[in-house]
Amino acid sequence: MPANTRSINELLMDRFAAEHVDSAVQHFGRMVDDFRKGDWEDAAAKGGKFIEAALKCLWVHVGEAVPSGRDFSAGGIMDKLPSKSAFADTIRLTIPRACRFAYEIASNRGARHDATEIDANEMDASVVLSACAWILAEMVRYSQQGLDLAQAKAVVDGLMRKRFPFFEEIGDHIYTDAGDSALDVALLVLARIYPNRMSRAELVASIKRHGHSAGNAAVAVSRVLGYTDDDGNGNLQLRNRGLRKAEELIAKVSV
């Protein structure tokens, strides 16, 4: 079966244990979700879980059993992988080094930053996400001999895009294929830009671009206020109940 018709799980399972592949891909997807929502600390934490699952994939691949419970040590596996001389350098050295770099950041959330310094949570989460995406792409490349890193990266990029498969961005305009009513559009557009705000005027214009009348757009914006926070200047940000409502709309069209 061609690589571009197989899921990332299937591509990885050609070389790595299914149990740990599923866990790694799941943690990666949740990390992307948290990052998209601006949950920087949660995104970094999910990155740490992804790295642990990725290391378990490598450890089983080199013929070792993964220690259970408290006996498991990500650092221990990273220390021991270089001695597995029968395996490719990317398994022994390259991927573990990337894991160590990202794991160090993900495992020290808030501990390294002085309270008087600029909050680096977003920057740290961005670095962890980028490193994890590279690790996943390199694992795909290794699992699929003959697939270059650019192709493997495209597979991972596709996984990241699929977290929001019903959105399209053209310039500054956001479109959604989920939801039917003007209110649905309002909720989904605000969910897509979360945690950023959008002015009421911009939201009306966005709803109109989806084919709704100016009157329906205005009504939808007035109704969406119950799901949002207004900064006092007419700039709206979804609250948790709005995010949950948007997730429900996406779930309906995802089945």
Radius of gyration from the CA trace? Answer: 21 Å
Helicity level = 55-70%
H-E order = HHHHHHHEEHEHHEEH
Q: What are the segments in which pLDDT stays under 50 over at least 5 consecutive residues?
A: 1-5, 110-116
Report the mean per-residue pLDDT as an integer.
Answer: 87
Sheet of most strands: 3 strands, antiparallel
Oligomer: single chain
Structural class assignment: mainly alpha
C-alpha end-to-end distance: 25 Å
Strand content is 5-15%
Topology (SSEs and partners):
Layout: H1 8-13, H2 18-36, H3 40-61, H4 74-80, H5 89-106, H6 121-143, H7 149-161, E1 167-170, E2 173-176, H8 182-193, E3 198-199, H9 200-209, H10 214-224, E4 228-230, E5 235-238, H11 240-254
Antiparallel strand pairs: 1-2, 3-5, 4-5
Concise summary:
By secondary structure, the chain is mainly α. It has helices at residues 8-13, 18-36, 40-61, 74-80, 89-106, 121-143, 149-161, 182-193, 200-209, 214-224, 240-254, and strands spanning 167-170, 173-176, 198-199, 228-230, 235-238.
Describe the structure in your own words:
The relative contact order is 0.10. The chain has helices at residues 8-13, 18-36, 40-61, 74-80, 89-106, 121-143, 149-161, 182-193, 200-209, 214-224, 240-254; strands at residues 167-170, 173-176, 198-199, 228-230, 235-238. Helices cover 61% and strands 7% of the residues. It has eleven helices and five strands. By secondary structure, the chain is mostly helical. The protein is elongated and about 70 Å long. The chain has a three-stranded antiparallel beta sheet. It has a two-stranded antiparallel sheet with strand order 1-2. Helix 2 packs antiparallel against helix 3, helix 2 (18-36) packs antiparallel against helix 6 (121-143) and helix 6 packs across helix 7 (149-161).
